[in-house]
Every structure is written in C-alpha cells, then in structure tokens.
Amino acid sequence: MSRVGLALALHELSERIRDRWVLVISVLFALLASGVSLYGRIAQADLEALTGPSLVTLTALLVPLVALVLSHDAIVGERDRNTLGLLLSLPVSRLEVVAAKYLGRSVALTLAVVVGLGAAMGAGGPSGLRTLVALMGPTILLGLAFLSLGMLVSACTRRQITATSIVVVTWFLLVFFYDLALLGILVISDGAVSQQTISSLVVANPAGLYRLQMMQVFAGPELLRSLGMTVALPSPGTLGLLWTGWLVLPTAASGILLAREKVI
Questions:
Q1: What is the pLDDT of residue 234?
Q2: Residue 172 C-beta-side C-alpha neighbours within 13 Å
Q3: How far is the C-alpha of 93 from the C-alpha of 107, rounded, in Å?
Q4: How far apart are CA 30 and CA 59, in angstroms?
Q5: Residue partners of 215: CB distance under 8 A and separation at least 6
Q6: CB 3.0–4.6 Å: which of 120, 152, 192, 210 could bond 250 by disulfide?
Q7: Closest to 251 measured CA to CA, from 32, 138, 99, 59
Q8: In 3-state terms, what secondary structure has residue 91?
Q9: pLDDT along the chain (264 residues), means of 10
Q10: What are phi and psi of 143, to 5 degrees?
C-alpha cells in the first residue's frame, strides 16, 4: 500500500475510534462481557464450560453489530457529504481506497474486540486466559466478515439512510432469523432435508460458522452429537477458506463497484 493509502487508513482509524455509536456499543460489549465473566467467577463455575459459551452467545450478537455500524458509511458517507470526488482525485487507485478504508476500520474493530474480551477475562481472573485465547481469533474473524459485508452494502447504496436500514436488516437476518429459518425447514420437511445440507447452510453464514466452531471448542463434539448433529464440522483447511471468502469477496466486490464509479 502506498503512503497515501496508509494515510487514508490512519485517517479512517482516527475517525472511527471517535465515533460515538461505535464507542457506545463497544463499551456496552465490554460491560456485558465483564458481567458474564464476573458472574461465573462469583458462582465458581468452570469458565470454559459455562462462561465461555455465554461469551460466545454475547459476541455473536454484538460484534457483528459493531462491525456493521463501523462499515456501513465507508463509501456512501462520502457520497452524502459530496466528498467522494475529492477522495477519488487523490493519487491512489480506487481499489486502494477501499483497502485503506477496510484496513483502518478493521484495526478499530480489533481494538474494540480486544478491549471487550480483555475486560471480560480481567473480571474472570487468571483462569480465563485459555478462554481469551480461544475466543479472540475467531471473534475478530467474525467481526471482519461482517465489516466486509458492511463495506459492500455501503458501496451498493446511494444514500446513507438506505445503507443504515440495510445493515440493520442484514444483522437481524444473519444473526437472529437465519437459524430460525433453518429450523423451520427441518420441521416443515419432517427430516426430508439431510443434515449435511443443513450443516452446509449453517456454516455458510459467518455467525453460524462462528457459533459451531466455538461450541466445538468449549463443549466438544460430544455435545454436538447429543444435539443430534451427526455430520462432522468442516476441516481446519475448509474453515480457513470459508473465513477467507467472507473477508475477501465482499470487500473485493466493493472495490470493483467503486472502480466503476463515475464522479462528476
């Protein structure tokens, strides 16, 4: 990345860490995560067996929201402020503009996740170190996947209010209603749809992929079998490809859309 691109990334980072909505949601995440860990510590519960899955549920709800709030105005915000033409007139390619925006916002998101989970582990005590290590990487990947989706929404829309509405709908669909829809398919089909098909649909959603991956880490494959899931989870190589696809493809599509942008 060129010096201009790095300067843009640093500018994006400084702007995002001052965004009041991002700060509010990040502080809320840190407080709730700390509360979960503190409860487990007071109850003298096994942090991995009880508090870990509770933190997974919390992060699967809030981290995608933080990521979408961070990214939804990346491109369309420039359009609304009539500064997109000025931005694209800089001596930097349009693909590099998208990369710089994604990089700066990725660092801001990573800081929010580290602060939130760090506060949780601080409240949980030294016994929570392994849980922190297990959660940190996949949680950042989850956030970056939704950040990439938010960038794509921002590149596709013409007004910021439209982008805001779409990312809220996206959050509800992927985080809440997606699993309910799959459950409905199982009930309506009365088992006609194979578990392999349902498993493939679950891991096709970054939120579902994250939950299954973390469920296996904290509860083991025995819990999945007790819930009736006899299909093996994707191999580490497949997991890596899935996460890479969610991170790269929407952002690349955003760059292609911006490259075709005609600014007067």
A1: 73
A2: 5
A3: 21
A4: 10
A5: 53, 56, 223, 224
A6: 152
A7: 99
A8: coil
A9: 85 83 80 75 58 80 90 89 84 88 92 82 65 83 94 92 93 90 80 74 87 76 56 76 92 89 66
A10: -65, -40
What's the N-to-C CA distance of the chain in angstroms?
26
Q: Are 139 and 59 in contact (CB under 8 A)?
A: yes
**pLDDT recorded at residue 153:** 94
Please name the amino acid found at residue 82: N
Q: Enumerate the domain spans of the chain.
A: 3-259
Gap between the Cα atoms of 175 and 206, Å rounded: 9
Residue with token string 């965004």: 19
DSSP 174-228: IIIIHHHHHHHHHHHHTT-S-HHHHHHHHHTSHHHHHHHHHHHHHH-HHHHHHTT
Answer for the pair 58, 137: CB distance below 8 angstroms, yes or no.
no
Which tokens hold the place of 207?
């939120």
